[in-house]
Amino acid sequence: MEMIRIVLVTLVVFNLVLVPSKADFGFHFPFFGGGSSPDPPQDDNQATPAGQTMANETLREDFYIDSCPDAEQIVSDALTDIFKSNPNSIANLIRLQFHDCFVVGCDASVLLDYSKAGDKVEKSSMLNGQLLKGADLIDDIKAKLEQRCPGTVSCSDTLVFATNEAMTLAGLPRRKALGGRRDSLVSLASVAERNNLPMPNWSMDQMLELFKRKGYTPEEMVVLLGAHSVGVAHCDTFMERVYDYARTGKPDAALPKKVANEMKMQCPHAGTPQFRNPPVSFDETPTVLDNLFFKNMVEKKKTLLITDSHLIADPRTFPIVKQMADDQALFQRRFVEVMDKLTSMNALIGTDGEIRKTCRSSNN
Ligand code: HEM
């Protein structure tokens, strides 16, 4: 399995040498303008049924029952503590989990600070950068696990246990997470940038293509995007919609005036030195995984990101959004199920990878 991963990463790197970079395709950053993407690349990973890895081995509950029986409790206590002073930690972790799993697999590659060959790591990719938060929280939690059970609980399981706890703190029923993942030895920004992570100005076709390539139905994509029920988006990622949509100099016509005015007030001084790129909550309950995000879409046509706005505009996804907006219990049940699938993507198991001592660097 490890050999397959090494070959895969090598192929990806080699391929990048042969094809033009994203910038050559008219890809701009930050998020104003651009947004086109090249033809779909090969799969870098694909979802398997929840709990099942590519090698058909299974992750399991109570993986640490003998080696570190309190592992989940330690994570839970640590995050509960963090949450008291940092309520946005739960959103940080859920996003971090997504960005880990969609790039090759749930292997904590997103947490590495260095690559042995000196290449840029996922963390420093333009798609992650300063807006991807939570790695420091995993450091704190992992340190507590190391104190009690040295060299036992992987960073990828630490992240999954923390995300599971974050979902509980955000109001979902408490449940045991699956364990048994190991940590990758590699992390490459170039792989993250190879159409494995979405951009907030993508079209619906681009979003559907990415999620389909990773093994998700449109319904599962909508449910996962319900994660935008928690946390924030910084003005940089969406204010094009109110100031200069698609370089027209006008607001996005799909935005009701009231919503556009509200967004302008939340993102003042755009284009001046006084602009501070403030964070704006996706909905009015940024620490609760409820269906308000979907309700706001349906009832007020209120969305921050362009990609989220496609969910109500597109007939392929609108009926699913409506279903989620009408039935909070359905959204919460499906969110847990699809997150199980997400957190099982391409896990490293058995003797593949390693159990890192610190999540920022591999052991040797
Ligand atoms: C088309 C797909 C997606 C796009 C384009 C997208 C884009 C973004 C952007 C631009 C932000 C704002 C970041 C910031 O300004 O700090 C954000 C935040 C967030 N995203 Fe997504 N996202 C997508 C899918 C997902 C999925 C599938 C999940 C999880 C399962 C997720 C979880 C989150 C969370 C929890 C936040 C809030 C983070 C925080 O407050 O720190 N997103 N997303």
From TrEMBL:
Keyword terms of this UniProt record: Calcium, Disulfide bond, Heme, Hydrogen peroxide, Iron, Metal-binding, Oxidoreductase, Peroxidase, Secreted, Signal
Residues bound to substrate: 198
Species name: Clitoria ternatea
CDD domains: secretory_peroxidase
Protein name, entry field: Peroxidase
Signal sequence, start to end: 1-23
Chain's role: Removal of H(2)O(2), oxidation of toxic reductants, biosynthesis and degradation of lignin, suberization, auxin catabolism, response to environmental stresses such as wounding, pathogen attack and oxidative stress. These functions might be dependent on each isozyme/isoform in each plant tissue.
Binding-site residues, Ca(2+) 2: 283, 285, 290
Pfam families the UniProt entry points to: peroxidase
